[in-house]
Amino acid sequence: MPRLTASRVRTPFPLTYEQEWFHTKTLSSGWSHKNTQLAFEILGGLDTDALAAAVRAFVVRHDALHLQMDPVPGPHPLQWTRGIEAEEEVVRRVKVKAASPAQFSHYASVLLSRDCVTPWSYGTQRPFVIRLLRYDENHHALLATFQNLVFDGRAHHLFGHEVWRDYQTLRDGGSPPDTAPSFADAAVRQRERTSERLREQAQANWRERLAFMTRVSWPRTGPAEADTAEGGMVSAELPAATVTALRGLCAEFRFTVLQSAVGLFVTALATRTGMSEVGLWTSMDSRASRDMDVVGMFAGSCPLILRDAGADAFSVRTQVRDQLLNGLRHQRLDAEDLTALTREAEETGGAPVSRDIYVNLRRFEGNSAVADDIGGLRITADAYPLHRITFHDTFALHLRCTEFRDRLCVDLLYDGHRADRRLARSVLDDMLAGLVATVPAG
After folding, report:
1. What pLDDT score was predicted for residue 6?
2. Helix or strand run (H / E) with residue 140
3. 355, 215 in Cβ contact below 8 A?
4. Reading across the β-sheet that carries 128-136, which strands appear in turn?
């Protein structure tokens, strides 16, 4: 990662709640480090100077990428920003000597994999590594990894959108924006919005949800002798016409497509397992509406409780929508609060908090095309898979829903032990059938 020079005067500010939760996890035993990654294969006559300038502009204007903490931050760290120096290298350009495009791609995967698992050396390094690899004048790779403590899913989207937008702007003779909404300001506002009354309300709400999560039990469907190596994933997607129609119908009833998808997932799960109550965890982005273009870390997780999972599909979707809004309203608790509330729930309930089901929801404004044509280039995202790195899910079922303007992509991971492939396939098929049935024929 880029090294720092002598420090300047710094103005500390607090971590966001989500940063604090994540930092606390990194201090636990058994923590496996993984950074956020982006990788693009670029075919065609790339203007490498313009791309490097676009990436640099992104890094310079987004202050989350300037963040630093003490070398040994401890459990309650502060953070501060240190601007990018005028002569500081942001993009590392490397000419790769490879015998073939396949060998070049393999090298890119290996390099990305190494960067992906490299921890942040606080106080001495930047929280990112960005490399531009060259095979020949018509074949390049852009590899970027960011420390999760400063970069979440929304930031991931903003990087891809803004860098290629600014590349085209520079090629057209224009200048990219030199300012962006401040993460430091947004982090301070998040803390300032939390009064003691709101904190007490959030504690009471989490106490209720965590108590519920100690009561729900997972009905094992996989063979008792199976292990996590027998897990896997089933996938499906809805095409543009169906998603567009579904989006319009959902809006009439004040649902989103993703809320409907989760509701139908719960309905399918209840039907296939006989569960009358379902507790699940989901990703939650706590950005205020004014901060949607802030690069930083506002992504956490929270439990959703469905007390009547066997109700009709509309009622279940309503429960999901209300629970998502409820979760967002009560996210502002620090790591000590959540640790204490979890311990209290488990001691009172006499059982661990259930973490069998996880739902990850993402929505992007653009289309889903893996490859885009920009300025005569053929750009393919996610072109370099991680090499010899495996991260095991701890969930029985892990639903990943990604909504694009033209498509809904759904992956359902199963662990093979608590949930087997047959259950996952049945739940996914029922869920997709429910979404399609929502849209009138023709």
Report:
1. 40
2. strand 139-146
3. no
4. 91-95, 128-136, 139-146, 36-43, 377-381, 371-374
| CA angle 171–172–176, rounded 5-degree value | 75
Distance (Å, whole) CA 184 – CA 16: 9
Task: List the domain boundaries for the chain.
Answer: 13-187, 195-367+386-438
- SS3 call for 9: coil
273 Cβ contact list (under 8 Å, min separation 6): 219, 221, 423
Which segment of 74-78, 248-252, 367-371, 387-391 scores lowest on mean pLDDT? 367-371
Tokens of 64: 């989350």
Nearest to 353 by CA among 209, 218, 220, 210: 210
Provide the 10 A C-beta neighbour count for residue 120.
Answer: 22
- Residue that wins the pLDDT comparison between 391 and 62: 62
pLDDT tens column, 290-323? 999 999 999 999 999 999 999 999 999 999 999 9
The 3-state secondary structure of 371-417 reads EEEECCEEEEECCCCCCCCCCCCCCCEEEEEEECCCCEEEEEEECCC
Kindly tell me if the per-residue pLDDT of 388 is higher than 90.
no
Q: Is pLDDT of 114 > 90?
A: yes
As given in the structure block, the two tokens for residue 222 are 């996989």
- CATH number for the segment(s) 195-367+386-438: 3.30.559.30
Element (H, E) at 39: strand 36-43
Hey, what are 106's tokens?
A: 């393999």
Q: What is the pLDDT of residue 220?
A: 64
| pLDDT 10s digits, 409-420 | 999 999 998 999
Dihedrals φ, ψ of 342, to 5°? -65, -45
Q: Report domain 13-187's class.
A: alpha beta
Structure pTM?
Answer: 0.90
Measured distance CA(211)–CA(209) in Å, rounded: 5
